């Protein structure tokens, strides 16, 4: 049976059976939520209400929760696992709230399969986008709903580092590459004046001055960037992002931003290091989440 045929079977089941929350809406949970979120709105305490965004909280299954047999998302997870799409990432969630919940009300939730689209090629690998719709009710009254989408995918094989373009290491830059092998981002220093890329002469051209270096914190912000789509680059999987990062120390440095396909100006990043072989370790950037 094809994936499409199995999707039709799951969709034909319609909504799952109502899943009743373990506990009614209660002030203890509301207070914990408000404290965690930092919400000081007095309305919830004064009126005995819960924040609308807590809708999903009441029907969470807890640590030892097992999905019901008629849960469509659970069914789709199994179908995709069996087809080899074993990895998962949540992509987006859209929630609607129709009224405030009040202390003492008991919420139930049902879920149905809304849509399945694929296979699609993504930066993570080939996969299927699965969308479910969960509806929360008090009795027969709908109080909130949510469209929830995940991507079930086959992880893309990591590109081989064979054939990786190698930097030209000179007497002036040797200290920098020795630093990357040691997990350090080193910046050339001429009597306290920092310079990158490193050069053979000091900014004031004083031939008696000898260069040293400082170890950067590795933290900075994206100053400019490009997303490289073509042509192919040895050892790289397309597309990839190259960013010019302004470090906390004030100099700017180029490098690949890993694990993402896009960034934005001003985005915070930190340095990381990718060992190509025993002779070469490349500095890269990771987005600070």
UniProtKB/TrEMBL annotation:
A molecular function GO annotation: DNA binding
Pfam family, one: OB_ChsH2_C
Annotated segments matching region Disordered: 1-24
Domain of life: Bacteria
Domain FAS1-like dehydratase: 22-145
Sequence ranges assigned to domain ChsH2 C-terminal OB-fold in this UniProt record: 213-274
DNA-binding among keywords: yes
InterPro entries: ChsH2_C, FAS1-like_DH_region, HotDog_dom_sf, NA-bd_OB-fold, Thioester_dehydratase-like
Keyword Plastid: no
Keyword vocabulary terms for this entry: DNA-binding
Record protein name field: DNA-binding protein
